[in-house]
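Why does this matter for the project? Reviewers at the last site visit asked to see concrete outputs rather than summary tables. In response, this paragraph embeds two records directly. Each consists of the residue sequence and, immediately after it, the corresponding structure tokens. Nothing has been edited or filtered.
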Amino acid sequence: MFRILLVNPGSTSSEVSVFEDETEVQSARMIHPVAELRKYPRILDQLPYRRRLIGDQLREWRIGKGDLAAVVGRSAISHKESGTYEVNAKMIADVRGIMSHLEHASGLGCMLAREIADEYGVPAFVAHLAMQPLGPLAKVSGLPAIERFAAYHVQNIEGVADFAAAEMNRRRQDVNLIIAHMEGGMSVAAMAGGKLLDVTNALEEGPFTTERSGALPVVSLVELCFSGRYTRGQILKMIRGEGGMVAYLGTNKIGDIEKRIEAGDDEARFYLEALCYQAAKDIAAMASVLQGKVDAVVLTGKILESAHAVAWLEARCGFIAPVKTYPEQEAPVFARAALKVLRHEEQARIYT
């Protein structure tokens, strides 16, 4: 039996899970309040904070040296084939370089995995799934100098696609799905025959989220950029980190917003419904990509913590296809990747 620790840093939380072979035996999700994240100018600066919280959790679980076989982190590497990669110094250096111009908490995955693995004397891996590229039509932006590209929550979307197809007693290659991963980052994807046809870029497109602005009126954004009121860094922070629900309601927690709605907070209700309104428009747009041939609309991510949000999305999208909800599938994907290496079914890839 192999005991594996999984580390999954997201924009608003850090999740850790312990698997014994294919079975998850422990899990915890540490929410990072907006006020706490604002203490750190850059996401890289959050590394010691998140590492401390994870260490506290492992001590609470009484996990000591000799109790783990491996640590697996969320992947932020790019332009590499799918596979399980050993975390090495070059990977960490490259991810740090990427984060210098494209910040996302996923980049902390390999760093956290390496630090924890070193402490426990075990190997550190990342489970990497290469993103499928957009087709030629989907790449067109409307401006030759800018080309659309795929940036989406590949581990969860691929995992949920397999899960949904299996529940329908079909292969993923035989179903057409619209999958909406909805939380701090959002990806709305159209998949046909197991292949990605189109997806909203989670970094700069799509609906607003708990902490991102999503797509904005472009001329108004340009005017804001050149108003002289904000620096480039401040604008980027408003778009990713302090946009969306953080800007409107001061929180990045779906669960807290749901509680406010239950307590009669009309403002919280209005903005969460507006988020779902925008998401439903993108879901409906993906139905046109699939030419109306949709077997299921799948909702996944932290949005499932809000019964109101799920009901609003079902009401607006149910005419497209049956609406299904599934919890995130990233952790099992990570665990299976590590197990294949530990069982010598596959060889770990060396990052170069």
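We now turn to the second protein, recorded in exactly the same manner.
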Amino acid sequence: MKIKTLTKKLEKIFPKDIAESWDNIGLLVGDENREITKVQISLDATEKIIDHAIENKVNLIITHHPIIFSGIKNITSKNFIGKKLLKIIENKIAVYSMHTNLDSAKEGLNQYITEKLGVKTSKILEEKYMDIYLLSVCVKEEFTEKLKSKIEKFGLEYNGYENVYYTSNSSENFEKEKFVDKNKKINVLGEKGKLSNLLNEIKKIQPYEEITYEMIKTENKISLGGLGRIYDLSEEMELGSYLELVKEKLSLNNIRVVGELDKKIKKIAVVNGGGASFLSKVEKIGVDLFITGDIKYHEALDAREMEISIFDIGHYESEHFFTDIIKRYCNDLEVIVYNDQPVFKNL
């Protein structure tokens, strides 16, 4: 299998355009046309993880956290990131990263964690939407079938349906030339970028110098998913009782807690990784308990004053499940799941 075949499959479930604007995802090292036989799925690309991939003759490492995040001015053995990248390149290993797009996807990490907690119904905390556009093009009737095949090539989707379009008869009148031509009008729904590419292809197969078309933004939007999940317990529980449930479901020995253990809770929010930036948002919607990681002292202090309890389950502990999710989509390949140890140890 080529790298691009696998990544195309992954990006259908975890689209790149759902990632946060500051993120760096996708194929970060390697050639998408290279053949792969063995994949290693790892949360991070530490040197230990890279060495493990080399020892096991892995062609592709899929990580959650990007190995390249901020700007790099040089790649040499004199700096830490350069040393790792050189080792990867010299051993012909590609690195593909799925970060906030995996967090936000409908079948992504936030959803996976809530399901592990036994939650059947949840809502997205910060939803992302895609605008839907309508492309209307007039073409000669004999070009209709050729145009339909072009539409299918671009993989346009609307609300779970592929290649949504409809046709009608149209008549074009050119007064200057006293010319009337009967055509077919094809209307296609989809995202703007794909429709623009489709339009360029249509122009190539048309016999006219100019074609009649319009592209307009509709009021329709498609939910792409989003960060975080919110849910309600069927009945109130004491914080201490729910603490034991979370430990059991997520296989945790320790959780840092903000709040009194006898407090009654019902509305809960979950954000994997570091979710402190969502504190104001969860306060506005009346969350009783916020489950996340990487909470600092002043953020915890603010939460206590807001009367929001917190379970800080740890960054690594809330995201290592990433490997379980990705493994599902690599069943045509030999897969190794390998993670470095958590950075923090509870002693």
